[in-house]
Amino acid sequence: MVRIKTIDNTVVPYMSAINLKFKIEKKWFSNQFFVTLNSWNAQYHAILGYDFLQRNKVVIDTVNKQLLVGNQKFDFEENSPTNVCSETTDCDISESDKNKKESFEQINNNFGEKFNVSEETFHALNVKIANNITVQPFSTEIINLKVPKNISKNKDLIFIPKKNKLGYLINESLNVPTNANLFHTIIENNTNKVIHVRKNTIMGKLSTFDVNDIMSPSESEIYQINNLNLNEIHKMRRDELLKSDFKLDHLNDKDKKDMQDLLLKNYKVFSKSYKTLGETSAVIPEFSLLHNFPLQTKPYSIPLMAKKYAQQEINNLLEAGIIEPSSSSYCFPVIFIKKKQNPNDSNSEPKFRMVVDYRLLNSITETFKICLPKISEIIKNIAGRKIYCVLDLKSAFFQIKLRDEDKRKLAFCTEMGNFQPTRLPFGSKNSTSYFHTLISKCLNGITGKNVQFFLDDIIIAADSLCELKVTLQAVFDRLTKFNLTLDPSKLQLCKPEITYLGFDLNANGFSPSEQNVNKVTNFPRPKNLKQVRMFLGMLNYFRGLIYDYAGIVEPLVKLTKKNTPFVWSVECENAFNTVQEIILKKPTLKNFDPNLPISLITDASKIAICGILLQKKDNVYYPLEFFSRKLTPAECKYPSIRRELLAIYASVKHFHDQLLGENFELLTDAKPLTEYQSLDKKPEIVARWLLYLGTFSFTPTHIPGSLNPADFLSRVVEENSLNVNNITLFQPNDKLSMQNISIEQKQDAILSKIMNDLSVNKQCKQYFLDVNSGLLMIKNAHKNKKKIVNRIVIPKSLIKVCIETAHAPHFGVRKTFEFIRHKYQWKGMYLDTKNFCEHCEKCLENKPKAKLTQTQMIPKRNLAPGQCIAIDVVGKLPRSTDNKNFILTIIDHYSRYLEAYPLQNITSRTIINCLNKYFANFGLPKFLITDNATNFISNETVEFLDRLNIQHRKSSIYYPMANGLLERAHRTMKESLASMCENTFQWSEKLLFFKLYYNNSIHSVTKFAPAEIFFGRKQNLPLDSFFEPVTVENESKYLKNIRNNMCSIRNEFAKNEEQYFKNNAPHIKGRKVPNFNLGDKVFVKNFSHPHVFQEKYKGPFEIIKILRNNNYVIKSLKDNKTMKLNESKIFKQEQPRPNLRN
Length: 1142
What we know:
Keywords: Endonuclease, Hydrolase, Multifunctional enzyme, Nuclease, Nucleotidyltransferase, RNA-directed DNA polymerase, Transferase. By secondary structure, the protein is an alpha+beta fold.
């Protein structure tokens, strides 16, 4: 039973109903109309109700006076009643001659448009009233109109009323004439005056009408929204889904095809638009309010840049039936939040997320409580598998239908009008709870080791592709059953490593994601209590990955106590740095394996207790999870043995799920606890702990205190960790392979012509074809012109690739050019290399401009390679991924061969350990040069060098040029690492790459590569990876060639060094060389940073000893202290002029 209600809720009775097709402007609609007994205003042909507005998603824009239907706009028509004239219109009401002459052109023009009838069909004649009529104010009367004699009586008649000045209204009508050649219609008087109409007054026009002459709309023209059935929606999903929607390029061709077939077969679970979005009523949300008083708020203004998106989003949601126009007394504002823009697509239009601000409604909504799963449990269950997939539901909440009575409560307002959702909206209270309930119901029975979910993200894991496909099909079947759909653009498929809920999951276990690591390590030092709480809240997410977390952060936790002043102490700084270093290492925990033995190691301190759950595989312990908590003030007063027992009790209780029913090994450094059953049961709390521990089966084992958990775990990480980035550190460029160069040479127009000429035995200068590889080669004299070198001719298409590969360590023009011309050649090679290097953005960003120096140049004349080395420390540097902050550099003074070791600290013991590694590889030197740093001149270091009979030479203080070879290498190293590292913490990885290139680049002084002088040969670079290996046919001949080559290198080396200093002598021309003698009174530069009014020099001092290389030993005339300085740091007071001596 249908009830028609007016705006004041009055029920209107009706006589009958009919479905009609009608048109607004050029758009056809279909709707049900009702014939009522009420006296409606005759100026309206029909009244469209709320059912029409709701079904067709009509938005009434009162500001612009438009109706918005989908993407179409219809302007309001503000016409006067159809047959009432304005004051300026000439209308008659009698049969006067003037009336007879009056034209009905306006009626004729409007008739065809109103009824959609062709001009040939309509031929109108005047219609007169049959008798006098009087119509009282605000009333209606039935009148009789005469049918003209020349009109066929067997056809239906169309009557169009004439405009009048009296103010009465008569509607258009479709009529059937009576036997008396009359037809009836209604006249309506809406004025406050009596209207008299005389007999034979022309009331309008009349014409015959044939139903077949109406131009009816086609079905496709009728505007009806969201009336698709499920089969039609499935067809739309299949049609819009493409193979390219799935990112599977990392798979081989066979696996990629198998996976694409599986996904396309299950097209029913994928949706790319709102129109094909899934819809389910498996879970029906209920929004129960604390009271029924309507809540309303004003709409928020929409930013200009978001208005276009807002209009499009509203239209899309209307068209899909996800929202509908609303007249609800509830109303909440909408916010448009800008989404993150893809950094690779900076030119794309900004996108926004539409969110309704339901905070006011949420405050009066009753809570629907559920328990969300613990993220840590999800990660533990799913980690440690070989293949992963993550499925993301498309507009997840919009797939749940709402009850009709709840739609009005969730209405929202925008500048485009008021709307209400038909599906569950985001942002409303309990939306998350209902959605989690739905997914739990959908995946019930298949979640476990292979399937887990958290809200709209479903993760699937497997150890093989076959197992993965079976699990995927099971999930797809469930989603199809519940008519839920996924977003194909957000799927992550068949990945060996995946980021899920802030963790990186792979076959090794789980660790913090790179994004979260950066958040923790880049967090600035807290400056107030709020920032400390933010930092601790961020860390709490990963506390299960950090050994003794509670003990480490205890100084920071103290700051959060009530009435504690904020003082950032040294302990706070150490805790802050320590926890950042631990997270930077990305600690990885293994997944629990029920087939492996379990161990639990515990420890206690005066402030915290901790425990580590371990499993042993191949005689190696792997951590599964860490537990720690801070001791209460009362627990801190426990004796040591009771705190250790508390650590065991609390750890066993924390790992209850994994340990109950298992026989595990308990490791503790408290030896009395190995006989815990014989402990004194007092106080009572100890008895309770022992009673609880008695329900578990374990074997206590004592471990020495030296094998504390921190040391134990650090060894496990160092022995088994592998940095993935180092695997491809030296990978050569495949474009420079022999096969690819051969192909590119043949495609190069110039080189292909030369190759064709050579193939027909034509002479082409120095070019020739290599017999083995078929490559085009060129003969050139070596730089010493004593031998001929064959080089590969690089085609134009590979020039950039060749230079990029040689310029990988970002060295200068000369070294990059030497790398290339060792094996390759093309015309203009040096200019191309120079142009590339001088315009390299990384080099421009990280290399300083060259400076003219005026330092006196001192030649190096050392015995042989390995006889004299210099060492120094670079840092403190940004903490690297392997927790290193410094670099120990060692350079051989003769060959300039450089070795560098990343270090965590620079204590004397660490320096000695590195020197031992160097000596084991390259032998003991005779001399070792250092600066005056405390770790180099400590008693431990001096004794170490004395035992090895190594002469320790210390450079002058505050004069780094005394160790110039190493300082210059430092500059090159810093520039190269800065250019190669995308992130600062990668420098430790790139250091290996730098050393290889540096030691094999031509030195500007010796004109030889350091490795060539040091080893007698060059080392292979990535540029050389595609060449054939060097073979030795005759050992004696090979050794003789090496000896001759070494002699030749040393002779040329000496000449090149001498020539270099000779050529660069003009750079120091004009420099004033100081002349110091024994006993001279001098002043020394103040090496501290003086204030404005402090002295810049200190003195006087007396020169008591003259050393080599312009160094002097001076003695203070005030306190007799001595120091060694270079001439550049001292100056001599000039002798007074003769007239001032007295």
